[in-house]
Amino acid sequence: MKPIAVLKFGGTSVANPELREKVLSHVKSYIDNDYSVVVVVSAMGRKGSPYATDTLIDLLPDGLETSIVKDFICNCGENISAAILAAEASMMGIEAVPLTGGQAGIITDACYTKANIIRIQPDIVVNHLSNDRVVIISGFQGHTMPEGYVTTLGRGGSDLSAISLSAALHADETVIYTDVPGIAFADPRLVPDVKFISSIPVKQLYWLSLGGAKVMHSRAVKTAMERMVSFYVRATGSDEEGTFVDTGHDTAFLPFAGIAAVPMDNGFSQVSLIMTPDSKKETEMIMEYWDGKEEKPEFEYLAEKCCLKAVLKEELSTCFIQETCGIISGKANLDILKKERVHDRIF
What we know:
Layout: E1 4-9, H1 17-32, E2 36-41, H2 53-58, H3 67-91, E3 96-99, E4 106-108, E5 117-120, H4 123-130, E6 134-138, E7 141-143, E8 150-152, H5 157-169, E9 173-178, E10 199-201, H6 202-210, H7 218-227, E11 231-235, E12 243-246, E13 258-263, E14 268-275, H8 280-290, H9 299-306, H10 308-311, E15 318-322, E16 325-333, H11 334-339, H12 342-346
Parallel strand pairs: 1-2, 1-9, 2-6, 3-6, 9-11, 10-12
Antiparallel strand pairs: 4-5, 7-8, 11-12, 13-14, 14-16, 15-16
């Protein structure tokens, strides 16, 4: 059998015909390089777009508590994406078949709206690949057994679908396509000239995702870490290599902390500085300081290194260690964050 490539495209990548044409150019490139191709898609666009997940949820009556109904309507957006992309692929001479998550063999428990994948039985997918068809799968979804009720995997579910399918298919290459050209030290939407990195250990990306970095949901990254699925993060609109997320045991950790920001009101954001285990001792020292204990002489150095004085408007609201990753959060003005070029000084 040919080598298998699993390519995931998010909602912004399939939002209009021009973007989907770029998606299919990536698919064609893998076909030309003699790969069998599996495509995982999200619902088209974001909230406000007619088929986006949040738009579909808004169609339901207020106060609806039946999660099985929410999952039923949420499945529609990804299915529409898969059907349209398959139709457009055929217009380009690419034989493609759309499948729901359940048809692709993704079996979940009955935890509706945030289901857990129990196993994947990819026989139908493998059969189509062996007949040289591109398989376009609705991400974010699966179904229960034996009832066959549709379920959704929660936020970041399409990434989780792609990583899990890659593991089940023993894929030779996995790519998460998004609207930024890889993984950066800060959110590129907040810091336009931020530096992107060529590779990162999967465990370090997991720490960043726990701290709020938006490039991938922590559930998907954790699955990649557990199932040993290395993958690329690339921009749909570019042919650049992107960032390689490496599951190799001998991969050296990068000497940096991460920074993530969640917008709030009045120009402020909840900013998290995410520190690696090498910085765990420093994180503990900062925790002691903010707990009101005696200030340590080293704190001035730490504060300068972490740029807390330049960034944080008020005292830190939270400070804790999560799975060996130190996360320091506080309220910050993004204009100050950009002016002080925090990303340069931290990393």
